Protein: 4-carboxymuconolactone decarboxylase family protein
Organism: Talaromyces pinophilus
Amino acid sequence: MRVPYVPEDVPVQNKTESEILARIVERRGSHGLLPLDRALLHSVFVADGWNTFLGSIRTKTSLHPILSELLICRVAVLNKASFEWDHHAPLLVEAGFPSDALYVLKADSFENTSSELQVDQLLSPSQLAALAYADQMTLSVKVGDDVFERLKQHYNTREIVEITATISAYNCVSRFLVALDVDERAGGENPEN
């Protein structure tokens, strides 16, 4: 970690900071504060906004949990964010994705499926379209018309906004994790399943 984690017993300066900390702890539930939280809490108000935004992305979209977690895990792979992968790959499996198929998220690209990896047998056409979109958003930022049109064939406007917000949010998360070397694994090999 490039900055020290705040202590487990997070020091708060006033009632406002105490309320912010309580909201973050409540969202984390029995998991307690993650190393990510303990890095963010150096700036309590940034941590509060992060908690609200990511809480909405995680729990208030109409996306199926498998799709959300596929997108989050793909961003983790592309950005070499091991901490993010380790946290979300189990959630993807818990949502119903086969654990022995996690390797599919390590494909070079989702624009043209590879039968060698059985990508097109493990993922639906709608999931492949969303993953191709995630790839372009993450690697190029600008998304080609062909990739966007493919996405529109499978998702309505609300879903497209939520897919875009999920990919964007987890690019933010992974970049924060990797830049500050949260959990001391930044920039290594691609996350393993």
Q: What stands out?
A: The CA atoms of residues 53 and 114 lie 35 Å apart. The radius of gyration is 17 Å. The longest helix spans residues 157-179.
